[in-house]
Design brief:
By secondary structure, the protein is of the alpha+beta class. It contains 1 helix and 8 strands, in the order ββββββββα. The relative contact order is 0.18. The chain binds zinc ion (ZN) (2 copies).
Amino acid sequence: MKFKATCKTCETANTVIACPNCSQQKIKDVTKETGFAGIQCSNCFHSFSSVKCGGCQSTIYLKDIGVIEKPPPPKPTPLETVLLVWLGFFVMLAFAFLFFKAFFSS
Ligand SMILES: [Zn+2]
Ligand SMILES: [Zn+2]
């Protein structure tokens, strides 16, 4: 995930993509009932709610941090979609077959 932290002092828009503790790009938002509550690293579990401005080294607090990019939901590839359609077709065919078999044998 990507976050945007806008500096109050120098108005630099900082992009936060990596954990400040382990530098892994595995950070995600922490959401509570009140809304966006912080950022947590899913690699080392470091959670933080403020970042340093790359321009002037001021601390940017949660109020000025926002989510830029959510990870896209996994979409089925065209091949998987085709397979699913065929699977559905065969399941229907099997049901029809069982239905007719039961119907004619009685
Ligand atoms: Zn980390
Ligand atoms: Zn700044």
